[in-house]
Structure formats: C-alpha cells, structure tokens
Amino acid sequence: MDGANSVIRRVDRPEPPAGPLSGVRLGVKDNVDVAGGPTTCASAFFASRVPDQDAEVVRRLEGAGASLVATLNLSEFAVGVTNQNSAAGPCRNPWDPSRIPGGSSGGSGAAVAAGIVDLALGTDTGGSIRLPASCCGVVGLRPTHGSIPLHGVFPVCDDVDTVGPLARTVSLVAQAQRVLTGSVSALPEPAAPRRIGIPVQLLDDVDPGVQAVVDAAVAVFGAEVVPVEVEGLLDAQDIVYTLVYADLARIHAARLASEPERFHPDSLVRIGLGRGIAPPERAAAAEARAALQARISAALDGVDLLLTSTMPVDVPRADPDDVLRVSRRLGQLTYPWSLHAGPTLALPVGFHPVSGMPVGIQLTAPEDAEDVLFAAGLWFQQQTDHHTRRPPR
After folding, report:
1. Please, are residues 132 and 102 in contact by the beta-carbon 8 Å criterion?
2. Cβ-contact 220, 307 below 8 angstroms
3. Where are the annotated segments for Disordered (predicted)?
4. Per DSSP, which regions of 100-138 are E strands?
5. Tens of pLDDT along 212-224?
6. 3-state secondary structure of 60
C-alpha cells in the first residue's frame, strides 16, 4: 500500500533479460523518460506527454535485469525540496505521513523506504537525491558530474544536473552505479576511511539532535578527524540558486508566458525568480562555481573524504505556508557539493533522539572516486544496523 503517495504510474513490462540486477524492483522518478505511458514531471503541462523511447539510464538498468514496476512522484519539474508541489498530489514520508519525504526525488526516497521498490532512480541538482535519502532513511548517490548519461532526463540546470540511484543498501547503490556508468570493475571491499575532513563552516546552526547522531557516526568510523576550511563554501547556496533559477526561467519561458496558472503556485514562484537574472549574473555564478570546485578539490587532497550532515534540521512537517523558508534551510548542506565535480553519498546513520526520524550524513570524494565512498559506506553498514530498520506499517 502506497500511503506516502510515492507512485505516479504502475508499469507492467515483459520480464527483462537475466543480469546482475535480476529480481530487483525498479522505480523511476517521473522526469526520466519511460516509454509506453506519460512521463509527466509531476506537472499538468505534461499530463499527456508520452515519450517514444526510454531514457538511457532506464535502458541500462532493464538491460541488467532490473524489473521496472513504477514511475515515482517528484516536485513539479524537479523544482523544490519538499515534494509538496506535485500535480499527482503531495508525497509524504513513510516514517511519519505528517512530514515531508524531501525532494525533489521524494517519491524515489519514499518508495524505497516503504519497500515498494528495491532500487529507484532520482535526479540531483541541488540535493534532490540526497535530501530524500536523508529524510526517508535510505542510501542515495549523487555521482560524479557527467558520469551517468542524462539523455531522456528532463533538465533543470546542465551545469549541476545528475541522475543517480537510491536503495536501502550501499551494495545495491554501488551495483546500480556500475550498470549506469558501464563499469565492469568489481565492487570495492568495505574499508573505513583513515582521515575524514569536517568542513567547519558547515557546523554552525545544526540542530543539536541531528549533530549528536552525526557525531556518533563519525565515532563509528574511528578515523582521524581533520577540520577543513574551504573559502567561499557558504556562498554555494547563492551560486546554485543563480545558476538554477536562470536556467529554469529559460527552459520554461514559453509556459511562463502563455499559461502560468497551470504551474503549482510554489513552482511558479521558484521558476519566476529566474526572470530577473541577467546573463552576466549567471556567467559570474558559473565562474564562482569553477573557483569553488578548485578549492573543494584542494581540501580533499589531505583527507580520504569530507563528511557533513545531509540536513541541518530534523525532517520538517509538511507546511504549505512555509515552503520557501524550509527549502532554503534544507539545502544549506547539500548545495556546496552540487558545485563539486565529484560524487557525494548520502548515508543513513541513525534516528533523531526527539522525533525518531531518520538522520543522514554526506560523504564527498574527489572526481570519479565513487569507490572511496562505497568502501566507507559498506564498512559503516557492516558495523551498524540503521539501514535495516523499516517505517511503521
């Protein structure tokens, strides 16, 4: 039963060929083309849009044996972090239906947590895989930018768009990453990192309950903790907003001009913000992104990985009157790594001491170093059982 409203469309397809993902039930965020029915982007504009072929990522996963069973809810056009602005209706959190699942890939996180699918595809521009993974207590990968093809995925911002997997275990996420990138290498052995960098600028204003769970997770790793300071890291949110909103206004210009009333009100506000961003301002943001990328790469030189909480707050309750404020707060810790070229793994590490809701961390590694993250995540899941807990039925 989908009490979280995570599914947009059930899919019934012939049995896929045998492969490394045989027996895995797959769900796909509904901004990723799935032929044979509407791929709606959770928008009234696309209610009847039927692609004539699958996205490349769908083709690869089915070719490896995964059984596609559903397309999944999202924030309209992947805009937003709460998944309350969907033409299919709000998606809820399986752990507590009064709370958000995170977004924009909320249906992907919720469907995995609820056991509706084993593996889900999401997209991540500013945190849209990592936030649902954290809110719903599952694993999610924002891959190295450009390592997984985006053909057949509706765009938000090419500079920072990615598509990646969510699952309950690091092992399944890693297997999916191999298929999605075309890699034939074996999975890494579990291994704890020896040196973990903690970006000190991102420690301020984190909820004490969240921080306590994160600190306990760091202790499990038993690594040397290295304070790291990255110049300009706190500018990441403004850089992401400038890039994303400018591109959204361009992508949706015709829809904004002709039928703005068909957008969900929250989406309309967000997309409309980009109309005031001039090309020189966007160009300056792109330059700032490149400079910050270089500084993040330099910070990774002396450590195995960087670690932060995924969110600075407990999982928020669904409040339609407070969406923009909540959105700015939720993405504070994900935006910096959206500007990094390398991968970030969202990993569930415990539960909030007051609310009982999931808490997650982000592990960030250099470009193309997904295996560093997988080794650490596999090791952590060997030592703990947080990922084995299930939402109440």
Report:
1. yes
2. no
3. 1-23
4. 119-124
5. 999 999 999 999 9
6. helix
Q: Which residues are catalytic?
A: 29, 104, 128
pLDDT confidence of residue 2: 75
- Does 1 score more than 60 pLDDT? no
Q: pLDDT value at position 322? A: 64
Task: Say if residues 171 and 141 touch (Cβ distance below 8 Å).
Answer: no
DSSP state of 354: T
Q: Which domains does the chain have, with CATH numbers?
A: 7-226+300-331+341-388 (3.90.1300.10)
What sign has the CA pseudo-torsion 288, 132, 378, 213? positive
Q: Is the peptide bond before 147 cis (omega within 30 degrees of 0)?
A: no
Count each helix (H run) and each strand (E run) in the chain, helices first. Answer: 12, 11
What single letter denotes the amino acid at residue 128? S
Contacts of 375 (CB under 8 A, 6+ apart): 188, 189, 190, 191
C-alpha closest to that of 86 among 6, 160, 165: 6
Output phi, psi for 152, to 5 deg.
90, 5
Q: In the chain, what is the greatest distance between 2 CA atoms, to the nearest angstrom?
A: 57
Inter-CA distances, 329 with 206, 237, 272, Å:
10, 10, 20
Residue 323 — pLDDT band, cuts 50, 70, 90?
low
Residue pair 347/99 in contact (Cβ under 8 Å)? The answer is no
- The answer to whether the CB of 192 falls within 8 A of the CB of 221 is yes
In which band, very low, low, confident or very high, does the pLDDT at 146 lie, cut at 50, 70 and 90? very high
